[in-house]
Input
Amino acid sequence: MILEMKVPSPGESITEVEIAEWLVEDGDYVEKDQAIAEVDSDKATLELPAEASGVITLKAEVGDAVEVGAIVCLIDTGAQKPESTEEPSSATSKKEEAPAEKKSDKAPQPAQAKETYASGVASPAAKKILEEKGVDSSTVTGSGRDGRITKEDAVNAVPSMGSPTGGNRGETRSKLSMLRRKVAERLVSAKNETAMLTTFNEVDMSAIFELRNEFKVDFKNKHGVGLGFMSFFTKAVVRALEMYPAVNSMIDGKEMISYDFCDISIAVSGPKGLMVPVIRNAENLTFRGVESEVKRLAIRAREGEITVDEMTGGTFTITNGGVFGSMLSTPIINPPQSAILGMHNIVERPIAKNGAIAIAPIMYVALSYDHRIIDGKESVGFLVAVKEALENPTELLMDNNVKKALEM
Output
């Protein structure tokens, strides 16, 4: 019986996928539920499992765009599983290798290029082109008869422009994945279709450093996850969103939709590019809950197991360029959201404290926002609220009870 395997729908609004890689070859015997291909949608890379056991016949090439519901391969479920073959004995191997070695001794050797007076000499047309380009004929390898430099060789010759010659100047072309193309489209769309502005501030991370240094070991031992910066930033963002609900809104045509929940998207670098999984109802999560969810989503994204549903939605995004060493940047809004917070690296800098100069761990933060629905007062107020919560986490994020907040 021949089973026609069709492309399943990876999620709502997705109409086609692209074959990123076949994990089996045409004619292979596959087992049921075995991963046979990786497919890219415009939101994620997913594995395609075999629906039955049998011999597979591929019906699409790598790079092909295949519509959801179209036949991607055939599986002959009546085919017998091939028996494993044993390795030939050493004696047999030697007998088989011996004639081959003998035969290779008689194999003709490639003819060597003949050196003559014409080798390396440019034809009149080639000589003129090389002179116009300022290229020394001794640096050009001739492809003509007996090594003569042809007009085509001269046309393809590249002037040294004062730099050493003979280096590798190759280039490669590769097709962008569907996911990468969609990310590019969304970023350009966000720049072109929103009135995007960015406001900046700086955060003294001393208080968070002190809390982490005191409790991170016990927190890790009790909860199995580290006490990172993301939980502090997520809690600070949730607090600020509740204070400035316009930042937790988005435009839909001529209407503005505001949300009474906080689904926080977190940007994660995955093997196929940028992934943005969502922490659902972050307003209801504790520090442990946020850290556990961040860890779970990050692992799934980096291992290519993240699903479309886990990346769909989100009312606000946090991106952390600091893990790559970024000092300052202007993050691009993740549409259809209206704002995104950019974290950056933490550097010890001199600042004024209590009338004196002190050295403190400082992070620059950036808020990009859609000025169509978020005014300057709201955007600046939101970022100041985030700054205040991060600089005074014990009072503003932990209700003056650190152990209770950390569930210690």
Residues 85-95, 98-107 have pLDDT under 50 and may be disordered. The longest strand covers residues 356-370.
